[in-house]
UniProtKB/TrEMBL annotation:
Belongs to the bacterial solute-binding protein 1 family. It comes from the Bacteria. Residues 1-29 form the signal peptide. InterPro entries: Bact_solute-bd_prot1 (IPR050490), SBP (IPR006059). This is Carbohydrate ABC transporter substrate-binding protein, CUT1 family. It comes from Stappia indica. The keyword Chaperone does not apply. It holds the Pfam family SBP_bac_8. Keywords: Periplasm, Signal. One of its GO terms (cellular component) is periplasmic space. It is found in: Periplasm. CDD domains: PBP2_UgpB.
Amino acid sequence: MLKSMLMKAVATATLSTGLALGTWASAQAVELQFFFPVAVGGKAAETIQSLTDEYVANNPDVKIDAVYSGSYQDTIAKVITASRGGTPPQLSMALSADMFTLIDEDLIVPFDDYLKTDEDKAWLEGFYPAFMENSQTGGKTYGIPFQRSTPVMYWNKEAFKEAGLDPETPPATWEELVEFGKKLTKKDANGNVTQWGVRIPSSGFPYWLFQGLTTQNDVILANSEGNKTNFDDPKVAEALQYMVDLSTKHGVMEPGIIEWGATPKAFFERQAAIMWTTTGNLTNVRDNAPFEFGVAMLPAHKRRGAPTGGGNFYLFKGASEEQLTAAANFVKWITGPEQAAKWTIATGYVAPRPDAWETEAMKTYAADFPPATVARDQLEFAVAELSTYQNQRVTTIFNDALAAAITGQKDAATALKDAQAQADAILAEYR
C-alpha cells in the first residue's frame, strides 16, 4: 500500500514538473504574427497554414499566428494601419512591387542583418535573379521571394480543334493572337458572341497583365530606382493600342473592363478560348477546367517577355531582435527546397529557387504535368514588375489611364501622356 502511494506521489510530481516545464517553455517561446494574402483560387491559404503549422510543431520555441489578410491591397493597407497604430506584424507577405512603398513608409528592415553565416549568404544567392529585381535596392535585400509568379497564357484545346486549329500549338506572336482569336470567336444566330477568342483581364491587376504587352514591345515602364516612369513612351502607347484593338478593331476580345477574378470561371465556362492570368492559377485550372488545356509563354512581338509578380516576405520594424531573428529563420525554412516544392505543387506559383526544382517531388510533378515549367522557363525573358515609390498612387494613375483607353474615354497616347504628368508630379521628390 505504502509502495503504491509512493509511486503515485512520484508520478504526480513528475507530471506536475513536466507541465510546469511545458508551461515555462511555452512562456519562453518567441511569438510572431504573420500576415499573408492570397490573390488566386485554389489551395494557397490552406497550404500556407499547413506549412506554418509544420514549422511550429518542429520548433516549439516559436509560436506563429498566421493571419489571412485578404487581397494584396487589403494586406498592405492592414500592415500600414497596424504599423502606424504601434502593433505591426513581425512578418508579412506583400507584393514585391510594394517594396519602395514599405521603405518610404519606414516600415521594414532588410534581411541582411539576419543573414550572417556563409550558409545564409549562399541561401540568399540561390533565388532566381528575375525575382530579386523586385526584392533588392541600394545594396540591401528587403524582400524574399515566395508567392511569386508570371502571367502565362492558357488555351482550351477542344476549342482549338473545333476552330480547325492545331490544339497543341498556341499563338506565338501578336499577329497570331489576332488570327487565332478570329477563328475562336463564336456567335449565335442573332450575332451575339458566345465565345471570345481572347480574354486579358483589365481589372484587379491591369498594369501587370498589360506589362506583358509593353515588355514584348521592348519598353520598360519604370526605372530600377523606383523614381521615374516611362508611361508616355510611344512603345507603351503602341502596346495599349494593340490591347484596345483586340476588342474595337479585331473583335476577338470582350469590350470594356474585363474582371480579373471572374476570368478563370469564364475560361471554364467556355466564354473565352484563351486567357491570360497568373501561373498562380495553374492548380485551380488543373482542378476545375472541364476540358483539356494548354499553358504557354505569352506571345512575342519585338521580343518575348513578361513581368514577374506576386508576393515577398518582409520583416517589420517594431519587432524585437529575437522576433526578427525567429522570423528570418522561418523564412529561410519555408523557402527551402522541400517546402517550396509543396507550395508550387499545391498552388502553381513558381518555386523561387532552382534547388526546389531538383527535389524528387518537383521532378515527378514536372514530368507528370509539364505546364508547371512554363512560368519558370519564362523567367529567362522576365522583367521586374512595375514598382515605384508611392506605388499604390502611381499604379492607380496608370490603371486609370489604361481604363480610359479601354473604355474609349481617351485615346491611348493622351491617356498615357496624362498619366506620365501625374506620376512625374509624385516622383519628382525622390530623384
